[in-house]
Design goal:
Blueprint (H helix, E strand, L loop, with lengths): L4 E2 L9 H9 L19 H18 L5 E6 L2 H13 L5 E6 L2 H10 L4 E7 L23 E3 L2 E2 L4 E2 L11 E4 L16 E5 L10 E6 L16 H6 L9 H16 L2 H21 L4 E2 L11 E6 L5 H10 L2 E2 L10 E4 L6 H18 L1
Parallel strand pairs: 1-13, 3-4, 3-5, 5-8, 8-9
Antiparallel strand pairs: 2-10, 6-7, 9-10, 11-12, 12-14
Helix pairs in contact: 1-6, 2-6, 3-4, 7-9
Bound molecules: pyridoxal-5'-phosphate.
Pyridoxal-5'-phosphate binds next to helix 3.
């Protein structure tokens, strides 16, 4: 069977090697006579799978010992509430950077728990860039500073790490986690839904510095308290076992491929290939400021939007799918996460050139 190239923003492409290994282990994991899906989460087989997934993620990202790694459910969207519940710690307000659709959702939710100080916003230019830190109005008394280093819909990525001094930095890394190496020690909390660059939907990874755990606002449900999960190795209740298993296979594969430094190199090559094509002609346009062009999600428009539909159809006929832009942006969007092979981007670029030759 031929695999298509899937440019979906999420759930997104997974590495073929991982899918094949999962297939091979589907009905009988390592000779134990059952599928990972059927295992007790408290049995030694499954416990070893989850422990190894955590160890591999720690190694890949260089997560320091004073951070907990939690495998939760509820998606990144639940973190929009769990972050203020856990991190306000008696303070009355938090700082948020507003760079687009996901920032806005995080801000809206945080307002249910306290005051939100928007340190800077790029709404003046339709969220096509990220304000640099000299334009941020940080509050030294803020409980934390939240930002979205990669806006999945707008395709705006921040490649530098904000300096927030003693105020914990919180990042929604749903769509760029594992795409390059970062210094985890600069963050208080990092969270990500798995379905973009980690594994299947249903798992949410939260990396949280230990001293921030255990001071939730009154009335916080048990399941929304980081301490519940930190104290129980993410096994207070049944974790999303199969998703964590697949994520673990992805972590192993990334390690075998040279880790995040190698991923970053490939991701730069893939993104450059696409951006160079967009820049080489007036037929296509990238709406994003150069310094914030995402390596993961690349929106682009055609000079003549009436040609969009035929573009999507023509691409699909060549096995290039899920290229339709987000409804709030229009045009096209190519999501090229770690698992998108460079051949997929090459095929897309080839098609773009052909399409331009026909209609340009
Ligand atoms: C997809 C996405 C979300 C929402 O994730 P869910 O897991 O569906 O809740 C939040 N933030 C960013 C940056 C995303 O890309």
């Amino acid at each position: 069977m031929e695999r298509i190239y899937n440019f979906s923003a999420g759930p997104a492409v997974l590495p073929r090697e991982v899918l094949e290994q999962a297939r091979d282990e589907m009905v009988d994991w390592h000779g134990c006579g059952m599928s990972v899906m059927e295992m007790s989460h408290r049995g030694k087989e499954y416990m070893s799978i989850q422990a190894e997934a955590e160890a591999d993620l720690r190694e890949l990202m260089g997560i320091p010992a004073n951070y907990k790694v939690l495998f939760l459910q509820g998606g990144a969207s639940s973190q929009f509430a769990m972050v203020p519940m856990n991190l306000l710690r008696g303070k009355s307000s938090a700082d948020y950077l507003n760079t687009g659709e996901w920032s806005k959702k995080a801000i809206k939710e945080a307002k249910k728990f306290g005051a939100v100080n928007v340190v800077a916003t790029s709404d003046d230019k339709n969220f096509s860039y990220a304000p640099t830190q000299d334009a941020w109005k940080l509050d030294p008394n803020a409980a934390y500073v939240h930002y979205t280093p990669n806006e999945t819909i707008g395709g705006v990525e921040i490649f530098w790490t904000p300096e927030t001094g003693a105020v914990p930095l919180v990042a929604d890394m749903s769509s760029n986690i594992l795409s390059r190496s970062i210094d985890v020690s600069k963050f208080g909390v990092i969270y990500a839904g798995a379905q973009k660059n980690i594994g299947p939907a249903g798992v949410t990874v939260v990396i949280v510095r230990e001293d921030l755990i255990g001071q939730v606002v009154a009335g916080t449900p048990t399941m929304m308290d980081y301490k519940t999960h930190a104290d129980n190795e993410s096994m207070y209740n049944t974790p999303p076992t199969y998703g964590i298993y697949i994520a673990g296979l992805v972590f192993k594969l990334l390690k075998a491929k040279g880790g995040l430094t190698a991923m970053e190199k490939t991701n730069i090559a893939k993104a450059n290939l696409l951006y160079d094509t967009l820049d080489s002609t007036g037929f296509y346009n990238s709406p994003v400021a150069r310094e914030n062009r995402s390596r993961m999600n690349i929106p682009f428009t055609l000079k003549d939007a009436s040609l969009d539909e035929e573009f999507i159809k023509g691409a699909k006929a060549r096995g290039l799918v899920q290229l339709k832009g987000h409804r709030s942006v229009g045009g096209m969007r190519a999501s090229i996460y770690n698992a998108m092979p460079i051949e997929g981007v090459q095929k897309l670029v080839e098609f773009m050139k052909e399409y331009e030759a026909k209609h340009g």
